[in-house]
Amino acid sequence: MKLRALLLVGSLLANITLAFLVANRSAQWIDFSSDSRTTAAQPTPSPGSANESAAALATPPLSPADGANPQTWAQLNTGDLPAAVARLRAAGLPPALLRAMVRTLVSEQFEDRRKVLTDAIKAQPWWLGESFNFDPKIGTIRRRINRDQEDLVNQLLGPDTDLTEAQRARQRRAFGDLPQDKIEALQRIDSDYAQMMAEVRMEAQGMMLAEDRAKLALLEQEKSSDMAALLSPEERFEHDLRSSPSSAELRGRLAAFDATEAEFRLLFKLQKTVDDQFGPPQTLSVEQRNQRNQALAKLLPQVEAALGAARFAEFKETTDGNYLTTSNLVRRFELPPTATREIIAIQRDINQRSESIRGDRNLAPETRNAQLMALGQEANTRLAPILGPDALSAYKQGGGGWINNLVRPPAPAGKK
Amino acid sequence: MKLPAFLLGASLVANAILLGVFFLPAHPAAPARAPRPASSAAETSADAAARAAAAAKAREASAPIANAALVSAATRLNPEDLAGVVAWLRASGFPPRAVANIISRLVNKRFQERQEELSQPADQPFWRNADPAFNNPKLASERNKLRREQMDLLKQLFGENMMDYYTDSEEARVMLRRQIGDLPPDKLNGVASIEQDYSLMAQELLANSRGGPPAPADLEKLALLEKERRADIAKLLTPDELLDFQMHYGPTSSRMRRELALFKPTEVEYRALFPILDTVEQQFPSNLGTTADTVAARRAAEEKLQGQITAVLGAERYEQFKQSTDPANTQLNRLVARLDLPLAAAAGVAAIRTEVQQRATEIRQNQQLEPAARTAELTALAAEAAGKISQTLGGARGLDAYKEYGGQWLTNLVPRQPAAGKN
């Protein structure tokens, strides 16, 4: 009896407590339960559908700030990033907003390191050095902080897979058909070594010394080993064909040649034999670069054999420095591609005639200068209809310096 | 007796029901979504799917820790409705720097695809060089329109006091002070707005030259633009503020920071030199591209100012100023800086070169010397020069670097032997 009475009292007390807890929790949900009342009866409209605007008209949406809790930032920014991420994920925030918020929360955790950076900036006299990149060491601190922040964001959320079409296109161009996990690993290798190489270059301040080149060569070697561990020899070849200093250089050299894929592959294989011997050009001294150029020149018979006589002739013509410069200008100003050959033909003709004038010992200096100036004017007249005024002006400041040499007024007497 | 038994039974049943209600999943209405604003039509189906998946995952796995305000936000916030996101972030206690950080990322993301379309070729084959779309003036104009749109959006979101958001951190404030000085906060937004506008106009004009130097007609327009920029800024600031701003920011300041890096002026010297060098810069703006003619005219104008510069610096410092700013010494000065040597080392090497080249000329012009004797004397002179330069530049490391950067004359001192078998 007593036991039953006790049980009854205990049970009633438990009911009161539970009822209070349940009621209290309902009050906490007021913001979204009222939300659900406005929407639960309606089917969720698909994005962009006609239902969406109809639904929006029928029930005016609540302001996004309604129900916001002024403590949310403080509750998220506690330093416990995994917990903050879990809360944000649990809330189901849109991915773009989730990533932006996590980046911001991560950035807050680097305040101490940013203070070191800030103090270093403060210590620099404002009137010395560039406004932004005034000290390589400060640049290095900043890049490391940014990289570590990005790493932490990726650890918390995984890599950003929300790529734009252009980013996907760039990835295809750089990595071909490699699986995504290998692409991500390669990107990581690339960015790590790019960072270290950038630091070497930054320290060099545009004056690469032997020791800087040695550091770069070592980094290149280590990068190559890391890539070899990740990729099969075939994958490595396909990667280097697309994204290596050798392929970048080759693409530049062939800019006016209009190579087919098959031709590019052939030429890349040949160039690779030289690059495997010397290493990337950036790690070479002037003397080594000269040796490398000689080695590349020795490949010409093999290039001819690979391309055939007709294409080899085009290769030789279009990879000449003068042709490349002129052709770049023609492309920049969207002129017909035939303009390149026309300009070079005029240049050859005028140069040949100017050499004859300069070599004619019977001419008085005044007559010689007058004839050269007339030639310069003729060059202008012949080039103007091909190039137009803007491109002609650009040409004279770029590859067309030879015209300026013809029309330059003669040096005053007594000067050589 | 029966009543208490019934009561006990009913109470226990009520216990069970209440316990069940209490421990049910915490978010009964979660699947329902608030109506989206009309702008959500821009959201892609992939975005929608990702959001739905994330929300479902969150409901299943993490409901117990879901924060009501966050869940509420998640159902309403749409990254496309940036004004809504700003309002929510502010109401949720996010500090201005965090709001600026988040919104900048969302705005960049929104414009990224369109920017890439205007600056990157869509899908170039890997064996061809990507066409430099940035050299196309039509695209440059489109890109500028997009940038303006982006800036207008940011202004719309943050109001006219946008800079307050971007300077809400010690690092940003320190960088800004370095770049523009101590401008009063109320003038900061106005200055930033003027600078952004002129920068876009200048970029558009520069794009006409398609990556090359600007045409003379565009140079004139750019010079006019620079005058107008200065005038607009001058209207906004007091004369003292203007002078301090220009000493920190602008073409003269940029040029002085770059060219005086090795001279290392004191702040007093820098401030004293600024008005002198600014007169030349206003006459021949160097940040707008140069031609051979403007370079020569600028040099002539600078030459006329040497007296004033000497008066400001004194004779000794003036010599160092000349050594560090003479374009003929640029490479040697940079090398000396790279080797962590004082500027005097560059002057020392320059003096050795002048002396050695003079002696070399005398040897070459000495008709009484046999070719072999001449070569021997030049060889000895080259060795002597190398020894002195090595000593001045701190040893073999410095000498080797010098041979690569500006010291080719050392190698050319000795006449080359004709290759065997060639005439």
Radius of gyration of chain A: 35 Å
Which class of secondary structure composition applies to the elements of chain A? mainly alpha
In the predicted model, the low-confidence regions of chain A spanning at least 5 consecutive residues are: 20-60
Quaternary status of these chains?
heterodimer
Helix content percent band of chain A: over 70%
Mean pLDDT of chain A: 82
Instruction: Note the gap between the termini of chain A.
Output: 129 Å
Give the proportion of residues in helices of chain B. over 70%
Number of helices of chain A: 21
Question: β content of chain B, as a range?
Answer: under 5%
Number of beta-strand segments of chain A:
0
Q: Can you count the helices of chain B?
A: 21
Mean pLDDT of chain B: 80
**Total strand count of chain B, please?**
0
Q: Give the helices and strands of chain B as they follow along the chain.
A: HHHHHHHHHHHHHHHHHHHHH
- Biggest sheet details of chain B: none
Order of helices and strands of chain A: HHHHHHHHHHHHHHHHHHHHH
DSSP strand content of chain A: under 5%
Stretches of chain B where pLDDT is under 50 for at least 5 consecutive residues are 20-46, 58-66
Can you offer a commentary on this structure?
- The complex is a heterodimer of chains A (416) and B (423).
- Chain A is an all-alpha fold.
- Chain A has 21 helices and no strands.
- The longest helix of chain A is centred in the C-terminal third of the chain and has 33 residues, at 365-397.
- Chain A starts with a helix and ends in a 9-residue tail after the last helix.
- By secondary structure, chain B is mostly helical.
- Chain B has helices at residues 2-23, 45-62, 68-76, 82-91, 96-119, 137-158, 162-166, 170-180, 185-207, 216-236, 239-248, 251-259, 267-283, 292-304, 306-313, 315-325, 330-338, 343-365, 371-392, 396-404, 408-412.
- The longest helix of chain B has 24 residues, at 96-119.
- Chains A and B meet through helix 1, helix 2, helix 3, helix 4 and helix 5 of A and helix 1, helix 2, helix 3, helix 4 and helix 5 of B.
